[in-house]
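Board notes (copied after class):
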Amino acid sequence: MMRDHGGNLDAAKLQYGGHDWIDLSTGINRSPYPLPHIPLEAWTALPLKSATAALCTQARATYHVAPRKPRSLRSRRARRDPASSASGQTRPCADFRAHL
């Protein structure tokens, strides 16, 4: 016997009645959010460093977060911090681990 994985609206309609059901079990929406045209490259390529930097700059401006200091201006202690990786970049969530 094949296990029912959801989306079997015919069985639900027979059991509970009604005709205009929305199948939430599969994440399919008959009235999807209207997305603008998205270039094919957005789905088939990783973002460039320049695009990531532009996104971070815009997010910092939108959420009123001060820009990060250039690496050369960061303190020596921060560069020797064990929460930093071998490349000198701070690991994600390193600031939160200090408070645990």
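Comment from the instructor: Helices lie at 9-16, 41-44, 49-62, 76-80, 94-97. Residues 49-62 form the longest helix (14 residues).
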